[in-house]
Amino acid sequence: ATMPPLLSAIANAGRHGVLVKSAVVMERLGQVDAVALDKTGTLTEGTPRVTDIRPLPGAGLTEDALLALAAAAERPSEHPLARAITAAARERRLRPAAATDFGSVPGSGVTATVGGHVIEAGAPARLLDGSPHCAAAALAAEVAGALESGGRTAVLVRRDGVPVGVLGLADRLRPGAAAAVTALRALTGTAPVLLTGDNPRAAGRLAAEIGITDVRAGLLPQDKVAAVREQEAAGRRVLVVGDGVNDAPALAAAHTGVAMGRAGSDLALETADAVVVRDELAAVPAVIALSRAARRLVV
Ligand code: ADP
Ligand code: MG
Q: Which locations, inside or outside the cell, does it occupy (predicted)?
């Protein structure tokens, strides 16, 4: 028997490195007319590196001590920034202290108890919001702002509520990101939007490089959902592409959700309708085109 068009399309998608979970999904992929892209791990490779280690004067920490403290708190997190911080500590042959009481807030940061102190590491905008207005907080904001203006993602470290240092991290754009944005715009007739939990400065710089003008930064997971719902309320069928735990609610809310598979979180892979197994962004417009071609054969 010849294979039904949607099933052949699923097989073809597989050749492009995309796992499409059902024939219904294969069909829906061709119906999308708007695209929302996550930044970290989706448009970027998701393997950032620590580029700056800035203990705040007054905290009494060396660079190594600051990095070790952050690594101790980040160890259980599967976030790309957490992996970068623990890798940097390993490279410097540091031995992060044992930590307990781990907690994480998707899109925001982590917390743990290390050596009797509560250590938090996360987005400066969120942590400084909850900091008392002290000299350390003002200085931390300044250091983080300077790093972010340079295109870095800043991670603020607090000890017992007091900022003690800032780390700067940089990630590489995925090859093919700009081409994928162009292809998605052509296929859907609308400009893709960037939805990110990262800071507006780093997000804006990256967006400009790949031709995205609509940037929503500093978003929590539920804000990404709201951005998707807003477009869907305007009658659009939105394709969300993401990789993180923080993207899962938006992947679920979207008309169609696609996860980046290689470094993607389990939750994103389970929630998404399709998975880009080899992490090539070009595969996303490719499967939309495959879906449309298959639908022409079905109808
Ligand atoms: P994106 O939407 O670009 O994938 P996330 O929502 O995962 O980014 O993260 C948003 C921001 O929250 C990060 O830029 C960082 O500032 C902070 N953050 C999230 N998880 C962590 C973590 N484990 N350690 C430090 N910062 C974190
Ligand atoms: Mg991400």
A: Cell membrane
52 flagged as catalytic? no
* Domain at 81, CATH number: 3.40.1110.10
For residue 1, pLDDT over 80 is answered with: no
The amino acid occupying position 283 is A
- Average pLDDT value for residue range 231-239: 97
Pick the catalytic residue: 38, 171, 247, 273?
A: 38
Which residue type occupies 271? Answer: T
| Local confidence band at 293 (pLDDT 50, 70, 90 cut-offs) | very high
The SS3 call for residue 52 is strand
In contact, 258 and 288? CB cutoff 8 Å: no
What are the pocket residues of ligand 1 if the criterion is a CB atom closer than 6 Å to any ligand atom? 38-41, 74, 77, 79, 81-82, 107-110, 121-123, 153, 155, 196-198, 244, 246
Strand partners, 103: 111
Domain that holds residue 9: 5-45+172-298
Residues 254 and 181 in one domain: yes
**Could you give the CA distance from residue 232 to residue 236 in angstroms, rounded to a whole number?**
5
Among 149, 170, 191, identify where a domain stops.
170
pTM, rounded to two decimals: 0.86
Mutate to test the pocket of ligand 1, among 39, 47, 108 (most ligand atoms within 8 A of CB): 108
Task: Give dist(CA 282, CA 20) in Å, integer.
Answer: 15
Is the pLDDT confidence value at 129 over 70?
yes
Q: Are 119 and 169 in contact (CB under 8 A)?
A: no
> Is residue 232 within 8 Å of 256, Cβ to Cβ?
no
Whether 228 and 149 share a structural domain: no
Per-residue pLDDT reduced to its tens digit, 131-170: 667 889 999 999 999 999 998 999 999 999 999 999 999 9
- Which ligand ends up closest to the CA of 222? 1
ipTM (interface predicted TM): 0.95
Domain count, the chain: 2
